Amino acid sequence: MEHKRITIYDIADRLGISPTTVSRALRGQQGIAKSTIKKVRSMADEMGYSLNTLAAGLRTRKSYNIGVVVPQIDRAFIATFISGIEEIANEAGFNVMIYQSMDDEAKEIRNVMSLMSSSVDGAIISLSMNTKSMDHIRLFKAKNIPLVMADRVADEMDVDKVVIDNFEAGYHATEYLISLGHDYIAHFAGSPERNVYRDRKDGYLAALKRYNKPINPQLLIYENLSEAAGVRAVEKLLILDQLPDAIFAANDTTAVSAVLHLQKLGIAIPDEISIVGFNNDPIASILKPQLTTVDHPAREIGKTAAKRLISRINADEEMDIQNETFTLKTSLIIRGSSGPVSIRSEGKVHW
Amino acid sequence: MEHKRITIYDIADRLGISPTTVSRALRGQQGIAKSTIKKVRSMADEMGYSLNTLAAGLRTRKSYNIGVVVPQIDRAFIATFISGIEEIANEAGFNVMIYQSMDDEAKEIRNVMSLMSSSVDGAIISLSMNTKSMDHIRLFKAKNIPLVMADRVADEMDVDKVVIDNFEAGYHATEYLISLGHDYIAHFAGSPERNVYRDRKDGYLAALKRYNKPINPQLLIYENLSEAAGVRAVEKLLILDQLPDAIFAANDTTAVSAVLHLQKLGIAIPDEISIVGFNNDPIASILKPQLTTVDHPAREIGKTAAKRLISRINADEEMDIQNETFTLKTSLIIRGSSGPVSIRSEGKVHW
DNA sequence: TTGTAAGCGTTATCAT
DNA sequence: ATGATAACGCTTACAA
């Protein structure tokens, strides 16, 4: 039961015209009779024709596919990010191919390879947690494939980037905690290899410094920011002489997990410890007390990255556009998991 | 600055052999000298060659792309589902193209069209909330493109399907609530157009009937299962003479939203109303009290669908495999949002 | 084990 | 406004 594919030759034969004319008519090119266009299109419909994009792409060197490499799809932040990309790509007639690195450098490299041999017109990448080598990133320039790095980018690479100001966000979050009267503030950080976590941590340190708060290395805990990491980090705090009076976590997963663990231990949030997370995941507003967190414009990052990528793909290669970094706004969403020291001691604040 | 693409001809020229031999060596075909393979591969590496899959696909009529159409990527359940698909596809050397219908039939149809002209080797689809027409689904068979429907499937279509037993899950959830002593049980249902919601509802009704509980149409509320829907549904219950003593919601989003709204109104969960959700989203275990819910094997559904699709793609067309429906197991996860009537009246149960 | 030639379905170029 | 021809880069008969 072989399936015979309908080609422009078949249409041409039936209509007694040339394949070239059919091709032109189908694409609505200029310099072709309107009557011919009508004839061809209706015949194409009738015969159930559909373009072979492989053949067209081979000829035009365009696939209308963009590749997207992310750590893991099933994280609220990343799913939203991809959703934003798809939204824009779809409007512009591009297909989105997704690859997940599972936060593994080797897998990320393999992803990039398969993406490249799939002849995508461009790519968007958000680095895995432990990626160190940049060779596979450089490959894009070498192969002249437009690339936009998003969120987890590599500072040292000269490519288009879409990010947030993680330093500022970390600074503000910490400053906010300080403004509440806290001065013994812990930070749950991710791998310093990644700009996002390094910058959030640096913002945290800068705020402490700015307000003359003590910088205690024991309060700066590096973790992989998983759910289990939240518990581990709390355990590390518990063995200290003094519990911190506030925690700024580099993501919501860890922050929420920490809150739950602390509550299980009978430590009141925010009465005894104030907590601020990062991302504004759905779980943040379900937690009790609701989690104070930094709103991360995941969808906007995706949309911006896709727009940039597509305009680069569609641009004249000649005009050699400068690489740009787009920095999107974040905002601190203040909710119940953080509260002032003064009121706290009176034990009045719940949520 | 045109970028010259390296082809097998370039490699052949440099090595003084034929392109055919290069092609064979690269693919490690049988009947070729090991020394040639080595020579060719190292030269390919040196020259930075990468396969043009468009050309190869044009010749072999395979793209190694599969298309996936889902309602919306940024829903916990769907993101996990896609993650499972990508996992399997990636292992098998297939790329995953995603399209989101945004729960809109027209968009879904457009998605299917672009997917088809992108010459995918097969597709996986989960229907939008309001899809009625099946013409675009039939197109797959007409064009001889393997298709697997997953989760939100169309009962009337004869295609491969991967589902859960929604009737059974709805029956069990309701039966469980009855076993707790509840007999005035409400159900928040989704569009009866979709098998998943229709079956959950039918399971609910069957359980009520089986245990001789009254079936009250006012307690069966059809909604779009969004967050706002949870609030709306609760409002509809509030105007009744009597509040139900339990609610079974067809998804967690609505269940959680309902719990929050009820709590805001001062109604204790589960003391005054027991609630059961569906999906086991991350928010379910963060809610206080934690949400009793039906665990939905989203990742397994994705993996099963991908495996089936790929084995069909790789199968001999001749052997004309029968369509199958794979039904995966669900389980009821009992947590704090539901409790027995007896204890409840004593006001002892919190969580 | 290797090579030659044709063809996959388009589109671009050059004619007419 | 339309047509003939070549080319995109690969794989598959068939031949050597």
State the main characteristics:
DNA-binding; Rossmann fold; 434 Repressor (Amino-terminal Domain); six-stranded parallel sheet; alpha/beta; homodimer; 351 residues; disordered C terminus
State the gist of this model:
The structure is a homodimer of 351-residue chains. In chain A, strand 9 (274-279), helix 12 (282-286) and strand 10 form a beta-alpha-beta unit.
What does this structure look like?
The structure is a homodimer of 351-residue chains. In chain A, helix 5 links the parallel strand 1 and strand 2 (95-100). By secondary structure, chain A is of the alpha/beta class. Chain A has 14 helices and 12 strands. Chain A has helices at 8-15, 19-27, 34-47, 53-60, 76-91, 105-117, 135-142, 166-179, 195-210, 227-238, 252-264, 282-286, 298-314, 341-346; strands at residues 65-70, 95-100, 122-125, 147-150, 160-164, 185-189, 220-222, 246-249, 274-279, 292-295, 325-328, 331-333. In chain A, the strands form 2 sheets. In chain A, strands 2-1-3-4-5-11 form a 6-stranded parallel sheet, sandwiched between helices. The first copy, chain A, has a 6-stranded mixed sheet with strand order 7-6-8-9-10-12, sandwiched between helices. Chain A has 3 domains: 8-51, 434 Repressor (Amino-terminal Domain), CATH 1.10.260; 63-163 and 298-328, Response regulator (Rossmann fold), CATH 3.40.50.2300; 166-296 and 331-350, 3-Layer(aba) Sandwich (Rossmann fold). The first copy, chain A, is elongated and about 90 Å long. In chain A, helix 1 crosses helix 3, helix 8 packs parallel to helix 9 and helix 10 (227-238) crosses helix 11 (252-264). At the A-B interface, helix 4, helix 5, strand 2, helix 6 and helix 12 of A face helix 4, helix 5, strand 2, helix 6 and helix 12 of B. Strand 2 of chain A pairs antiparallel with strand 2 (95-100) of chain B, so a sheet runs across the interface.
